[in-house]
Amino acid sequence: MYGYSCEYCEGTVKERMVEKEVFKHKSGFVMLENVPVGICDNCGYRYYHSTILKRVDEIAEDKGSPKRTEPIPVAQYIYGLAS
Ligand SMILES: [Zn+2]
Predict the structure, then answer these.
(1) 18: CA distance to ligand 1 center in Å?
(2) C-alpha 13 – ligand 1 centre gap (Å)
(3) How sure is the predictor about 60, in pLDDT bands with cuts at 50, 70 and 90?
(4) How far is the CA of 74 from the centre of ligand 1 (A)?
(5) How remote is the CA of residue 66 from the centroid of ligand 1, in Å?
(6) φ, ψ for residue 60, nearest 5 deg
(7) Which of 4, 25, 32, 52 has an alpha carbon within 20 to 30 A of 64's alpha carbon?
């Protein structure tokens, strides 16, 4: 699925199973579990295979019947404000 060269550095994109990954879609957020994500072994850039993005589309557009729905906490990351 992966194993190609990173677009941004000299690293190699390695497949890694991620327990939970949140995707931003134009109609909201979708969380997938046990996703094979491609992660560059040098810079850490994440790649998503087209089949994963297709699945996100399906679920976001209500065709893929999600197993369940979980609320996703969303926060701004602002450095230095939490004290
Ligand atoms: Zn890279």
Answers:
(1) 18
(2) 7
(3) confident
(4) 27
(5) 32
(6) -65, -35
(7) 4
CA of 17 to the centre of ligand 1 (A): 18
The one-letter amino acid code at 56 reads: V
Q: What is the pLDDT of residue 77?
A: 65
pLDDT of residue 15: 96
If pLDDT is split at 50, 70 and 90, which confidence band does 61 have?
Answer: confident
Can you give the pLDDT at residue 12? 97
Measured in Å, residue 49 CA sits from the centre of ligand 1 at 16
59 touches 51 (CB < 8 A): no
| DSSP-assigned beta bridge partners for residue 17 | 36
Distance separating alpha carbons of residues 2 and 32, to the nearest angstrom: 18
